[in-house]
Design brief:
By secondary structure, this protein is an alpha/beta fold. It has two domains: 128 residues, Rossmann fold (3-Layer(aba) Sandwich), CATH 3.40.50.720; 131 residues, Dihydrodipicolinate Reductase, domain 2, CATH 3.30.360. It has an eight-stranded mixed sheet, covered by helices on one side. A hairpin with a 4-residue loop joins strand 8 and strand 9. Helix 1 packs across helix 8 and helix 4 runs antiparallel to helix 9. The longest helix is centred in the middle third of the chain and has 17 residues.
Length: 280
């Protein structure tokens, strides 16, 4: 059985989705909608693309994510929405309500790091050996359109907050130590057994790292040469690397084929936005 996927948005990340979908078995790309492009695969309107698709992959600018997702769901289509799924909590809650009112349409929020082999390994370690005392997270990069529309916390820090929730549960408290315009943000989150510090900026260069400390060991993960690597007390832990985006989209397609609700959900994305906005 072939799943017909439509792609809304063909910017740099939309093109990555397009290339990744071509590697997923039993998926046919129904077409693409992006007003900036024309061609054989490109539809003249979003409505036409939605009608020609069974599921919509929403990779439009952040300010349009919720509205496009709502159009797809209300038309009876499944929907995958890239993070942050909305620019504010009100939009996210409206999107979540529409998703709940249309349970036959399966929806998923695109938190790609949950499909990163290194973070999956860290999650297993935390379950087997216990939660760390502290976690330090840093994401730095050049300014992006998302950062300009939402601020750096909803563009970069949102990944780490979602990972922390996934691994540790909801935080007991969240506080902002610094938030300068849209360009720099620093959050402190307190969990049952763990204190976490999340720092994000769009001042460049690109940096990605996680440091988890226990009483007698330290786990260190960082991004190098287009993949993450993991170390324990200075020694590398071998983790088989597979591109997270392809794994994420493959998982979404498998959930639709098997009638299994995918995760993370729109409610997960809404909760992360709520954490950021309440902290600010």
């Amino acid at each position: 059985m072939t799943l017909r996927i439509g792609i809304a948005g063909y910017g740099s990340w939309g093109r990555r989705h397009f290339e990744s979908w071509k590697k997923v078995p039993s998926v046919e790309i129904a077409g693409i909608y992006d007003p900036a492009y024309q061609g054989e695969l490109f539809f003249r309107s979003l409505k036409e693309l939605i009608q020609a698709s069974e599921a919509l992959d929403v990779v439009v600018p952040a300010k349009s994510l919720a509205e496009v997702g709502i159009q797809a769901i209300e038309a009876g289509r499944h929907a995958f929405l890239e993070k942050p799924v909305a620019t504010n909590i009100e939009e996210a809650k409206r999107l979540a309500r529409v998703a709940r009112d249309n349970p036959e349409c399966m929806t998923m929020a695109g938190f790609i790091e949950r499909f990163n082999p290194v973070f999956r390994k860290l999650n297993i370690i935390f379950k087997e050996t216990g939660k760390p005392r502290t976690i330090f997270c840093q994401r730095s990069g050049a300014p992006t359109l998302v950062a300009r529309q939402t601020g750096v916390l909803k563009d970069l820090a949102i990944h780490d907050i979602d990972l922390l929730r996934w691994m540790l549960g909801d935080p007991k408290s969240v506080s902002v130590h610094s938030s300068r315009s849209f360009h720099f943000g620093e959050l402190e989150l307190s969990f049952e057994e763990t204190e976490a510090l999340v720092i994000s900026d769009c001042l460049g260069p690109k940096i990605r790292r996680w440091i988890a400390t226990f009483d007698d060991e330290t786990l260190f993960a960082h991004f190098e040469r287009n993949q993450w690597k993991l170390f324990q007390n200075g020694r590398e832990i071998t983790v088989a690397w597979v591109p997270p985006l392809e794994q994420e989209l493959r998982y979404f397609a498998e959930c639709l084929a098997n009638g299994r609700p995918p995760s993370p959900s729109i409610d997960d994305a809404t909760r992360v936005l709520e954490i950021i906005e309440k902290a600010r």
